[in-house]
Amino acid sequence: MDEKCNATICSNCKYFQRYYVLGCSRTFKPTQLGRCVNTDIAQSLSTKHIRKDDGCDLWQPYELQKLNIQYSLELRLQTIGNDVADILAVLRDVK
Fold this sequence. Notes:
Elements: H1 2-6, E1 16-22, E2 28-36, H2 43-52, H3 62-94
Antiparallel strand pairs: 1-2
């Protein structure tokens, strides 16, 4: 199992976007299907790789995507924090 988690297969790629279905309990359940969102590869070629689950030359680890999302969220939260501080300063000036 650990080998599959570290393998260079489509389902472990940064560009793999998994499909989900809505379950009976009104929650989304992941499927084994998905698509490649990398615009540098032709759709027909990415579909062939996904069907075989063998990854292509553009494969990148999913961990990179998680780090990019985390960094983006940190920047957004910092901006929100600055905005809240500005609003608080304005409200203090109104009193």
